[in-house]
Design a protein that fits this description.
This protein has 284 residues and is α+β, with helices and mostly antiparallel strands. It is 46% helix and 16% strand. The protein is built from 11 helices and 7 strands.
């Protein structure tokens, strides 16, 4: 018996790795049905639900019976379609209430910094506009003259453009119209500003700029906020599809890859998308 116990433990008394990783396969298989329902646009028929989960209808039905007893799934008596139940809603709301989006972003910045090699920051919408709340400089990159608490302009920073473009239409006009008008007056006073396509000087150009940001899914500035500096900002959305964080990358134009889909933009976009998903965001 002692030999048997020894065989089930490693040298420090812990269970062998294979045993630690062992789980209940039927739970993992059944979760595929819940995953399909969570991703679906509405209730599903048994055959469609089973097919999407890659299992037979008979097998899916057995899981669904148990899920109904637990309140994880409901079946409409009239249509016989299945949907997520109240227990699934409680689990989701409990998880969302415990999420700290900024903390989750901070925890992911070191890995992103290792990938892109340039200074990174997190920004949120504060009382006066997009505000830097976390800053992580790369020891190998040129220093950028921005600090915690800095409020970013809406038209000449990637952060400001990203937040302004993703504010809901009604809220955007109320909250930022005066800010935009003030920035436009300053830009219009810059000599030859009209000759630069990336510096809007009319409201029509502002709207076109914000539309481009939404279409690309990110904002970029080159030599507009600070001389010789390139910046990207990727939006992070919550479960209500609101932009709550901007993930920012900044660097010297001499070393910073400013290309769409390049060595900075692609990892930045991927990190922001993963964080949005972990916060409950589902793209339309």
């Amino acid at each position: 018996m002692d030999e048997l116990r020894a065989g089930l433990q490693d040298s420090d008394g812990a269970a062998p790795p294979d045993r630690e990783r062992a789980g209940i396969q039927s739970v993992e298989v059944g979760f595929a049905l819940l995953d399909v329902l969570a991703a679906a646009a509405g209730p599903l028929m048994l055959r469609d639900l089973a097919a999407a989960a890659d299992m037979s209808a008979a097998k899916a039905h057995r899981y669904l019976v148990s899920f109904q007893r637990l309140g994880l799934v409901l079946q409409d008596a009239a249509t016989t379609r299945y949907d997520l139940g109240p227990a699934a809603l409680r689990l989701g709301l409990a998880s969302l209430s415990r999420l700290d989006a900024v903390q989750m972003g901070r925890e992911r910045l070191p890995a992103l910094l290792e990938q892109v090699g340039h200074t990174l920051a997190l920004a949120v919408w504060g009382n006066h506009g997009p505000t830097i709340v976390h800053w992580q400089e790369s020891p190998l990159a040129s220093p950028v003259n921005l600090r915690l608490g800095d409020v970013m302009p809406l038209l000449t920073s990637a952060t400001g453009r990203c937040f302004a473009a993703h504010l809901t239409p009604g809220r955007a006009l109320h909250m930022i119209e005066a800010m935009i008008q003030d920035e436009l007056r300053r830009l219009q006073a810059i000599p030859h500003a009209q000759c630069r396509e990336d510096l809007p000087t009319t409201m029509e150009q502002v709207q076109a700029l914000f539309l481009e940001v939404r279409q690309r899914g990110m904002a970029r500035v080159v030599d507009t906020l600070l001389p010789g500096v390139v910046g990207f900002c990727a939006p992070v959305f919550d479960s209500d599809r609101r932009m709550i964080i901007g993930v920012v990358a900044l660097g010297s134009a001499a070393t910073f890859d400013a290309r769409w889909g390049g060595a900075v933009e692609a990892p930045l976009r991927a990190m922001a998308q993963r964080l949005s998903g972990d916060l409950g965001y589902t793209p339309q």
